[in-house]
Model the fold of this input.
Amino acid sequence: MSLSGKVAMVTGAGSGIGRAISLALAGQGVAVAVNDIDLERAQATAKEVATRGVRALPLRADVTRLDEVDAMIQEASQGLGRIDILVNNAGTGKVMPFPRMSYEVWKNMLALHLDGAFICARGVIEGMVSARWGRIVNLSSIMAFTGPDRLVHYATAKAGVVGFTKSLAREVAPFGVTVNAIAPGVIETPLLRTATDRFVDKMVAQTPVGRLGTTDDIVHTGIFLISEEASFVTGQVISPNGGYWV
Ligand SMILES: NC(=O)c1ccc[n+]([C@@H]2O[C@H](COP(=O)([O-])OP(=O)(O)OC[C@H]3O[C@@H](n4cnc5c(N)ncnc54)[C@H](O)[C@@H]3O)[C@@H](O)[C@H]2O)c1
Done:
């Protein structure tokens, strides 16, 4: 069954995976509320979404800010009618040795991935439950399972996303709302450009498929999880990772 006519909100959609998922949803006939903390990026993605013949609304908000997310959800609901699909994608990661990791850096990392997912999901869940249909897809990471060094804050936050996904999935399943996570391996996006070449080379060497993942590798998983055909798939973590599991 087609997703045409549905409405999605994608966070951190001004770049990388979020941008790619927004464009793919647009290709399925889904209107998109395109969020990013950087308005210009959101506007650029929204413009591309609109060329696919669906409505697009660029929305600047910091997903860690309750007031900003509340205002964004209100604007998206007014502008696009409702929100059927939420992709909690906004995120970042920076390699840092644990002894040098300040409490502030730790807290900010948890806030971005966990508070962000909570605040956005909390804002849209009642609408989905009332409509008896909804899809939430959260971006975790392979790092939640492999526990790389110098990424204690990131691995912890992404492991938290898994617990959040499973617990929320159980609670809203009776109402036709599914909640799943994608745990990508190493994907070529602007985020990866913040890592050193040595770090990236090591990751590729540890990836049996022998290459970095592309945003397309993630998008197909996302579209499947959002599809009508995945209505029996909930509380799951799918990891497109090229076999990387070290
Ligand atoms: N690229 C990878 O290898 C990889 C692997 C596993 C998981 N992920 C996860 O996938 C998601 C997307 O990553 P990406 O590689 O596309 O990154 P990216 O840096 O290309 O894009 C992230 C976007 O999020 C936005 N953003 C950051 N903080 C925000 C905030 N507080 N509120 C709203 N928007 C905010 C940024 O402005 C940016 O446009 C992240 O959650 C990331 O942790 C990425």
